[in-house]
DNA sequence: GACGATGTTGGCAC
DNA sequence: GGTGCCAACATCGT
């Protein structure tokens, strides 16, 4: 479910509950979501204090005390970190803290939990953060790619954190067709896309992310940005700019929503 | 009940 | 190496 704004909201809501807490014990009930050995991970976590929470792309990294390494979580499509501590059928990890409980629940099990000594490879290979990358670097990354813009925005090696919702929203905001070949974008239009991505993500964070189906933050609260979505899952509805119907197609095997009139192919 | 869609990404084929 | 397709899985709507 979660893209950068949702993951950032989870990180922010988790912070006051986890920072400075000591992990008393960790129990892993489903090895499928683990990268690495369950017993070893439990040993690595037990007794460590959580120093800080950092987000990179769609990953959350927990930095542990006493050179205890990093515990990294990726929520996949349906992963949920919760501080209420409800344990259900799809709860795959339970961390007992000195105050409270942290659970990881994930019905589809596309998420991953991982312990590593330093920054894990999964995070190291991510492209730059969309909210801090300079335009020049963005443009360089764009310029050499032959693929279409929708696929490129979804490529985590290009930018870390953009997913299906915000790729569609950013392309609409920039007025650019999703199938536009990345390398063909002029500098002016690339600048427009660069700004659109950043504005959309910042705005979505300010609204605590989008709840399209069932995303909630670590305190169980829904996002509000779904109210502001202009194209995502609005196919058939009128475009907010021109009134013509939003269309849905398949690009890079993902549902892709756009306005054929406001986002003409060039 | 079957079918297709869902916010992700890794692995495989070309 | 870049690019594109499919599978991993459960759930929900048609």
Describe the structure.
The protein is α+β, with helices and mostly antiparallel strands. It has 2 domains: 4-124, MutM-like, N-terminal (N-terminal domain of MutM-like DNA repair proteins, Alpha-Beta Barrel), CATH 3.20.190; 135-258, Orthogonal Bundle (Helicase, Ruva Protein, domain 3), CATH 1.10.8. It has helices at 4-18, 38-45, 121-124, 135-143, 149-154, 164-174, 187-206; strands spanning 23-28, 34-35, 50-56, 59-64, 70-74, 80-82, 91-97, 101-105, 112-116, 247-251, 254-258. A hairpin with a 2-residue loop joins strand 10 and strand 11 (254-258). Helix 4 (135-143) crosses helix 7 (187-206). The longest helix has 20 residues, at 187-206. The protein is elongated and about 60 Å long. The mean pLDDT is 96. The structure holds a DNA duplex (14 and 14 nucleotides).
What features would you highlight for this structure?
Helicase, Ruva Protein, domain 3, single chain, 5-stranded mixed sheet, 266 residues, DNA-binding, alpha+beta
- So how many helices? 7
Rg calculated over all Cα atoms: 19 Å
Coarse structural class = alpha+beta
Q: Tell me about the largest β-sheet.
A: 5 strands, mixed
CATH class of the largest domain: Mainly Alpha
| Unreliable parts | none
Mean pLDDT: 96
Based on the coordinates given, report the CATH architecture of the largest domain: Orthogonal Bundle
Number of domains: 2
CATH fold group of the largest domain: Helicase, Ruva Protein, domain 3
Order of helices and strands: HEEHEEEEEEEHHHHHEE
Strand content: 15-25%
Structural shape: elongated
How helical, in percent, are the residues? 25-40%
Q: How many beta-strand runs?
A: 11
Order of strands side by side in the largest beta sheet?
2-9-5-4-3
Distance between the termini: 32 Å
């Amino acid at each position: 479910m979660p893209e950068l704004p949702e993951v950032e909201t989870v990180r922010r809501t988790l912070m006051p509950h986890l920072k400075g807490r000591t992990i008393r014990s960790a129990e892993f009930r489903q090895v499928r979501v683990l990268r690495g050995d369950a017993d070893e991970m439990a040993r690595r976590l037990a007794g460590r204090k959580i120093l800080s929470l950092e987000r990179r792309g769609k990953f959350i990294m927990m930095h542990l005390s006493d050179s205890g390494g990093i515990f990294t979580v990726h929520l996949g499509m349906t992963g949920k970190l919760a501080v209420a501590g409800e344990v259900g059928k799809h709860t795959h990890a339970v961390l007992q803290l000195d105050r409270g409980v942290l659970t990881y629940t994930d019905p589809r099990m596309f998420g991953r939990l991982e312990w590593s000594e330093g920054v894990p490879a999964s995070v190291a290979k991510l492209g730059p953060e969309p909210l801090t990358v300079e335009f020049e670097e963005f443009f360089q990354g764009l310029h050499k790619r032959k693929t279409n813009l929708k696929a490129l925005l979804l490529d985590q090696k290009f930018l870390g954190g953009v997913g299906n919702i915000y790729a569609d929203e950013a392309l609409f905001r920039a007025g650019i067709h999703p199938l536009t070949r990345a390398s063909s974008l002029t500098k002016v239009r690339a600048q427009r896309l660069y700004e659109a991505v950043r504005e959309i993500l910042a705005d979505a964070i300010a609204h605590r992310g989008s709840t399209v189906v069932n995303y909630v933050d670590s305190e169980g609260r829904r996002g509000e940005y779904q109210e502001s979505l202009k194209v995502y899952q609005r196919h058939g509805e009128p475009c907010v700019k021109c009134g013509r119907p939003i269309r849905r197609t398949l690009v890079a095997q993902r549902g892709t929503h756009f306005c054929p009139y406001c986002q003409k192919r060039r």
